[in-house]
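job 3f2a | input accepted
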Amino acid sequence: MADIMNNNSVSWRLVGLAELQRNRGWLFALGIGLFILGVIAIGASALTTILSVFLLGCLLLAGGVVQIAHAFSAHRWSGFFIHLFVGILYAITGLLMTVNPAAAGISITLIMAIFFLAEGTFRIIATLFARFPHWGWQLLSGIVTFLLGMLIWSQWPLSGLSIIGIFVGVSMIFNGWGLVMLAVALKKAVA
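job 3f2a | predicted structure (191 res):
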């Protein structure tokens, strides 16, 4: 049975590899495109922040409307008020984010700073107490996360208009570069 499962796993991997091989040009182009968009996003970080927050607000608003509609469609259900309350909360939050995305971006950035400070502190303390194998990397991760939180906090509220855009841009750059390197590796695998 294990041999059959291993053979199926290998055949699925080969099918997936063949599919990637056929589309490696598209992977490369997508990677380059994401990389370029990431650079643009960082260069226009305030605009990227506002657009990202606005889009998130639209998604929350739409989710709230659907949740409210669902609550009224099943109004005899005991969870009516929970769904109605959550839907209203989503809709109000989404509306506030779409009406003033700059203020929402500044608020979200403050929450991110607090989160990074708390996560970094917890990771540092937990790592120092646990001391599991290779604990130094986790300690370094905690220190970097804490310092990132301090950096955002110290520049807040000015950082509120750029941090989200920078994070989106950095994510796009690394995702794009990962796809480019995958396409290059696939080309080398064929050769």
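job 3f2a | The chain has one domain: 27-190.
job 3f2a | closed
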